[in-house]
Amino acid sequence: MAKDRKIDLVILGLLAHEDLTGYDIKKYIDGSIRFFWKGSFGSIYPALSDMEMQGLVKRKKSDNSGGREKIAYHLTKKGEDALKAWLKEEKVSNELKYETLLKLYFGGVEDRSVTIRNIELFEENIKQNLEILKVYKSNLEKVLDEEDHLYYYLTVTFGIDTYEAYLKWCTKSKKLLKK
Amino acid sequence: MAKDRKIDLVILGLLAHEDLTGYDIKKYIDGSIRFFWKGSFGSIYPALSDMEMQGLVKRKKSDNSGGREKIAYHLTKKGEDALKAWLKEEKVSNELKYETLLKLYFGGVEDRSVTIRNIELFEENIKQNLEILKVYKSNLEKVLDEEDHLYYYLTVTFGIDTYEAYLKWCTKSKKLLKK
DNA sequence: ATCAGCATGTAAGGCGTTACATGATTCA
DNA sequence: TGAATCATGTAACGCCTTACATGCTGAT
Fold first, then answer.
1. Adjacent-strand bridge partners of B72
2. Nearest C-alpha of chain B: how many angstroms from A114?
3. Domain check: are A80 and A110 in the same one?
4. CA at A136, C1' at C9: how many angstroms apart?
5. Same domain, residue pair B39 and B113
C-alpha cells in the first residue's frame, strides 16, 4: 500500500463489507463518509489498480449481463490483514483545514460585520448538515442490533455532537461581536 | 495569488499585523494556528517568492546587523486588498480529514477493544491540546480590550468548545462499546 | 429524443511534505 | 565544544483534484 495514501484504507474498509465497483465506492464516500473524508474518481480508480497489483483486492469477473463493463472488487486475505493492521496502529493523523477559522482569526483587518456574516454562513451550513446527520441517526437507531451499525452510529453521533457544539459557539460569538 | 493555495492567505493575514520573516511565519503557524491550519517551510518560502512577484508583499531591506541574512516581508496595499477580498468572499472550504473517524467507521472488522483503544488515544490527545487552549484563553482574556485579541479569543473558544464536545462523546461512546 | 445517472479511466497540473544543503549564533 | 535555535532555500516526490474522453441505460 502506498505509504501515505489514506484513500486505500477507505476502499479496503468498504470492501470488507461487500464487493464494490469504483463507482459504488465513490457513492459511499459521497454519502456519510463525506463528513470526515473525501475522494474523487481520479484517486479511487488508480488506487484500485495499485491495490490489485499488490494483491490487496481482487477483480471479480466483470458483470457483462447488460451494457458497459462493471468491475467489482473483492477484498483478499492480504487486504483484510492490511486493514486490520491499520486499525491497530496507534498513530493517526487528524487534520482540520477550516477556512472559516482562518477568516475568523484574521477578522480584525475588516469590520466586525464581515466576521459576523462569515459566522452566519458557517452556521447555515452546519445546520443543514446537522439535519442530514439526524436523519442518519434515527435510521441507524432502528438497526442498532447489527454490530457494524453501531460503528456507523458512533461516527454519526460524533458529527451531531460536534455540530451542536459549533452552533452554540456561533450563537455565543455573534452575541460577543455585536456588543 | 495562486488559485487554491490557502497558505497565501495565512501569510497575508499574519503580515497584516507586522512585518515578518518566513521563519517567523512558521513559528506563528506552529503556534495557535496549528489547531486549524498547517504549513511547512517548503510551502512558506515559495509562497513568499510568488507573492512578492505578484506585488502582494514586499521584501524589506534585509537586516544584516548580525550574521545571516534575514528577510522580513511587508504587506503591500495590493496584498491588503487581496486579504480583505478573501475575507468577504462567501465561499469557504472546511475540510476534515479525521483518521480517527475513519478507523471508527470501519471498527466492525476488529474487536471492540481495538476501537475502544483508538478512542482512548484520541481522548488523550484532545485532553492535552485542550489544556494548551485553556492557557491561551486565560492569557487572551487579560488583553481582550484590543480588537485583534477578540478574534484570537474566538478561535480559541471554538477549539475549547469542540474539544469539550469530543471528550463528552468519547466518554459516552466508550460506555456504549463496553456494554 | 434527451437528459440524468451509470461506469471506467487518463492527463495535466497544483499543492504540499520530507529531506537535504548550508551556515551563523547562543548558551550550557 | 557541541547542541539547539535561527534562517533561507531547493529537490524529489507523492497525493489529489479537475477536466476530459467515452459510451450505455432508463425514465420522462
1. B21
2. 6
3. no
4. 32
5. no
Q: Which of A62, A88, A114 is the last residue of a domain?
A: A88
A102 touches strand D (CB under 7 A): no
Q: Which helix (H) or strand (E) holds A48?
A: helix A41-53
Q: Which residues contact B117 (CB under 8 A, 6 or more apart)?
A: A90
Cβ separation A13–B93 shorter than 8 A = no
CATH of the domain at A23: 1.10.10.10
Q: How far apart are CA B52 and CA B143, in angstroms?
A: 33
Range of the domain at B83: 6-88
Nine-digit cell at B25? Answer: 511565519
Residues 22-61 of chain A within 7 A of strand D, judged by CB, are 38-43, 47
Contact A88 B114 (CB under 8 A): yes
Residues B81 and B19 in one domain: yes
Using a CB–CB cutoff of 8 Å, tell me whether A95 touches chain B: yes
What global pTM score does this model have? Answer: 0.95
Domain count for chain B? 2
| pLDDT tens per residue, range A25-56 | 999 999 999 999 999 999 999 999 999 999 99
